[in-house]
Design a protein that fits this description.
With about 400 residues, the protein is mainly alpha-helical. Helix content is about 60%, strand content about 5%. Strands 2-1-5 form a three-stranded antiparallel sheet. It has a two-stranded antiparallel sheet with strand order 3-4. Helix 11 packs antiparallel against helix 15. The structure holds zinc ion.
Length: about 400
């Protein structure tokens, strides 16, 4: 992976070169100039074109020369990628997303929008809808393909619709926050969405106001107006804005007030972590982004990014597994289960896994974990086997239960 990253960085540096763009622009200028000359005096067409030949050839060569470095960088990058992900087909399933271009395109477009790459997203969406419009509808579509076609309206809606505006707003507010240390627009947004945030148990509005307090305390000026020292401004802010938080955040407010007493020497006070935390802006920005996405019923992290990263971590293990399976002439037969453990970081684990203590099998949607009234949990099939539909004794404790009292657990 290191090698790929190194080559990626190198390629990025080389491809950044603006020289090539200038050369292409020079070629365009030459052609435009020639067109003007011919329009002005049509009789000069042949001589103008003849004169054009050498300079255009030279500028093409210059462009190609500039691109050489980018080409070689791209070559090395491709080689590094090939080396890491050797060209071996992995076992596919019925829901192989890569054969569903509409779904993949939707994921890419959503990723671009949520990352704030609006012009790239616009170009991508307009080209994607052109491709999908031109392809003939297939009458022999599979179930998965039909689902993908149903996703098409989403792509059209993304181009102009609400979701684009929402992400635009999110990035405007984030920009104000991170570039200008201006929290007010984000606070206003949180205030307007207070009820929805409250239902989610979110602390966002208070987090934002607390950071605004700390910022004022350190001498930040609201609307560029300052009436007194930072400490006074912060106190004013508390009086004006914090009464609404008293019910839910009294201990936090008390802590902020307590810090006032330590103002001359906050560094050595117990409040230092609130007032001099280098990560506090980043943390609030992350939490804002998460809550904003949550109100749109979207995950805080880009699903495409998560899937691609998890895939990059998992692929080497799966490829190794495949080599071993080939040598031993065995096959990957389990349907909804990976044959080996893929150690993903904690933040990438979204579902807990339950292994039935009776059958030692991992539970699935078809064979879910069941909670017996005594509090023990076994898989549904084990339960059916043990109870045979009548009163039975729990395999782990002396209590007797009825199979119909067991409840399905959602993981
Ligand atoms: Zn029990």
């Amino acid at each position: 992976m290191d090698q790929v990253q190194k080559e990626h960085q190198r390629l990025w540096k080389r491809a950044q070169s603006s020289k090539c763009i200038n050369d292409v622009q020079a070629t365009i200028d030459l052609l435009l100039e020639a067109r003007r000359t011919i329009v002005d005096d049509p009789s000069s067409a042949s001589i103008t074109l003849a004169k054009l030949q050498n300079p255009v050839k030279a500028s093409f060569e210059a462009t190609n020369n500039d691109l050489k470095e980018a080409y070689s960088g791209l070559n090395k990058y491709t080689k590094a990628l090939d080396k890491l992900f050797k060209d071996k087909p992995l076992p596919t399933t019925e829901y192989d997303s890569l054969s569903q271009p509409v779904l993949v395109n939707r994921a890419v477009a959503m990723h671009l929008l949520r990352e704030g790459e609006f012009s790239t997203a616009d170009t991508f969406l307009s080209e994607v809808s052109r491709i999908h419009m031109s392809s003939e509808p297939d009458t022999t579509m599979s179930q998965a393909e039909k689902q993908a076609t149903e996703a098409m309206p989403d792509i059209e809606a993304m181009q102009s619709g609400e979701i684009r505006n929402q992400f635009l707003l999110m990035h405007e507010l984030l920009y104000e926050m991170t570039e200008h240390q201006n929290l007010l627009p984000a606070i206003e947004w949180a205030r307007n969405n207070r009820e929805a945030l409250y239902v989610r148990g979110s602390n966002l509005e208070f987090e934002l106001c607390q950071l605004q307090f700390v910022w004022l305390f350190h001498g930040g000026k609201e609307n560029n107006v300052s009436v007194g020292s930072g400490r006074l401004m912060a106190l004013e802010y508390v009086k004006r804005e914090f009464p609404r938080f008293q019910g839910r955040y009294l201990p936090e407010i008390q802590r902020l007030m307590g810090a006032m007493a330590f103002a001359p020497n906050l560094e050595d006070s117990p409040y230092n972590s609130i007032f001099n935390n280098p990560n506090s802006w980043e943390r609030v920005a992350t939490s804002f982004k998460g809550e904003f996405c949550a109100l749109l019923s979207l995950a805080a992290e880009s699903p495409l990014y998560v899937a691609a990263t998890a895939g990059a971590i998992a692929l080497p293990t799966l490829l190794k597994l495949q080599t071993i399976m080939k040598e031993k002439r065995t096959e990957w037969t389990s349907q909804n289960e990976l044959p080996v453990e893929i150690p993903l970081p904690r933040s990438y684990q979204y579902h807990s896994i339950f292994v039935c203590p009776v059958s030692k099998e991992q539970t699935t949607d078809e064979n879910p974990p069941m909670l017996i009234p005594c509090g023990h949990v076994i898989a549904q099939q084990s339960l059916a086997r043990i109870s045979k539909g009548v009163k039975f004794k729990c395999p782990y404790c002396p209590s007797e239960s009825n199979a119909k009292d067991a409840r399905k657990l959602l993981l």
